Amino acid sequence: SFMPGSEKAIERPYRMAISYLYEVYKNKIYKNKKEGKKDIFNLVKKDFKNIFKGIGKVCSDTELKVIINQLITGFNSPLTSSCGRLFDAVSSLLSISQHNYYEGQAAIELEMVSDESVLESYPFMLRRESNNGFINEIIVIDTLPIIEGMIADIKKGYKSSYISAKFHNTIIDIITKICEMMHKKFNIKKVALSGGVFQNNIILNRTFKMLKEKGFAVFTNFQVPVNDGGISLGQAFIAHHIANTLKD
C-alpha cells in the first residue's frame, strides 16, 4: 500500500488506515477524474465518520483531503510492503491507536486487545508475479479482502477484540500458506521466523505451533532481536569482520 506523507504515516497510523480505505474504494471511482476525486473523498469521509468514532480528534477534513489527493497523485506517497504498516492501519481502523509515540505502539496495543479464543479469520488472496527477470517468481499478498472483511465487521458492530483476533489469525494463515507453497515448489521443510512481526507473541507462538504440526522444522531468534535491532547487530558484526580482514 502507499504511505501518504511518507514517514508521517509511520507516526500517524490513521494515515495508513486512510490509504487502505482508499485502495478499497478507488475501484468505485467513476470515469470522470474530477468527479472521481470528489466521490472518493466523500466515500472515505463518510466511512471514516462511521468507522472512526473520534476521527475529528485526529484528522481534520483539510488533512483528510490532502491525504486523499496525495494518494490519487502519488505525491510523497511511497509504496510499502511493511507488515508493520498494515498492523498500524488495522489498529487505527479499530480506534485502538492513532499515533505511534514509540516504535510498534499501534501493533502492540492491537495485540493486547486480541481475544485469543477466537478461531475465525479473514479471506485473503495470494498471486504469483514475475520477479524482474529472475528465475523464481514472487508471491504477492493481496490484503484488500482483509480490510473489506474488517470494514464489514466494524459496521456490524463487532468488538475490537474479535476483529483483532480475526486479523491475527489471518496473518498466521498467510504465513502458513506461503510456507506450504514454498515446500511444494522447492521441497523446503525448514522455516526461519524473523522480522519485527514476530515480536508479536500471538503471531510467533501460533505460527510456530501450526508449522510444527504441518511437519516443518521451525527456527526463530532468541539471543538476537527479531526486528531491525538484529539487522543492526549483523551490520556491526560484518563491519568488525571487514575491519579485521583489512588489518591482516
UniProtKB/TrEMBL annotation:
Q: Which GO terms describe its biological process?
A: protein maturation
Tell me which residues make up the Carbamoyltransferase Kae1-like domain: 3-235
Q: Note the coiled coil stretches, chain numbering.
A: none
Record SUPFAM superfamilies? Actin-like ATPase domain (SSF53067)
Under Gene Ontology molecular function, one entry of this record is:
carboxyl- or carbamoyltransferase activity
One Pfam match: HypF_C_2
- The name of this protein is Carbamoyltransferase Kae1-like domain-containing protein
